Amino acid sequence: MTYTLYVDEMHANGPYQNFILAGIAFESSYYEKMVVPIINDFKRGYHNESFILHEQSIFAKKYGTPYYAFKDKALLDQYWQQFCSTFQGIQGTIFTVVIKENSLKKQFKDMNDIYHIAMQLLLESYCTFLIEKNTFGDVMFESRKSRLDEKLLEHCNFLRAMGTVLYPNHVFAKRVTTISFPKKIDNIIGLQLADAIPNSLNRYLSNMDQRISGLLDIIQSKFYTKNSIYRHSDVQVLSSEIDLIAYHKSRHPL
After folding, report:
1. What DSSP assignment string belongs to 58-96?
2. Contact in structure between 205 and 197 (CB atoms under 8 Å)
3. Is 168 part of any domain?
4. SS3 assignment, position 144
5. Is 12 helix (H, G, I), strand (E, B) or coil?
6. How confident is the model over 215-241, as pLDDT tens digits?
7. pTM metric for this prediction
8. How many domains is the chain partitioned into structurally?
9. What is the CATH number of the domain that holds 122?
10. Closest-CA residue to 57 (of 183, 197, 192, 188)
């Protein structure tokens, strides 16, 4: 029994106040036997299996693309209702790191790369999850630009070589095995589900209205519930600008 963590990110931009690195982990056999067929069946209701679930494109409704059909508001509303119902029925575990990017950069002029900070927090939490399951897993990021992919790989290799705040390198390297960067055209369903996470969270944390009814509650219900060391009573967080959303909802509700 192994796992894959599918990761997406969103930068602070305009009214969005936070950098968010978010991922959803699936047990590998469950993903292949259940998640992929369920989502492909959902896709066929709107186009075909090659249809890429991408929130920004769906709301952009660009002419000449399959997303143009969503100019019909009734169809758009139906899509998101069915997506939420489908997503709710899928068994996955969500890991999320939130950083108030602009505020943090003002406080710490020569701070580390934002991805390096967020990746350490995210993968450390994922490593804890894998240790609990007594297994190992890999990580997928959607490929962006070759230089960005290289930087993310450098950060991951650094953690494998040096360890994290909580785990020594041999523990981390044993549990988190590989990192890969498939492209959007590779149609990786796990990455398409991860795409649905950051915007709703950023809207909530930036005091904005939700545009997909019910999705935030579903995301919250799938949060990994192990408390992070950064919220542990025996550890003092150096900056309140770093907020790891990996907590038990009964203690830290949205």
Report:
1. HHHT-TTSGGGGGGSHHHHHHHHHHHHHHHHTS--EEEE
2. no
3. yes
4. coil
5. coil
6. 999 999 999 977 555 554 443 333 334
7. 0.88
8. 1
9. 3.30.420.10
10. 192
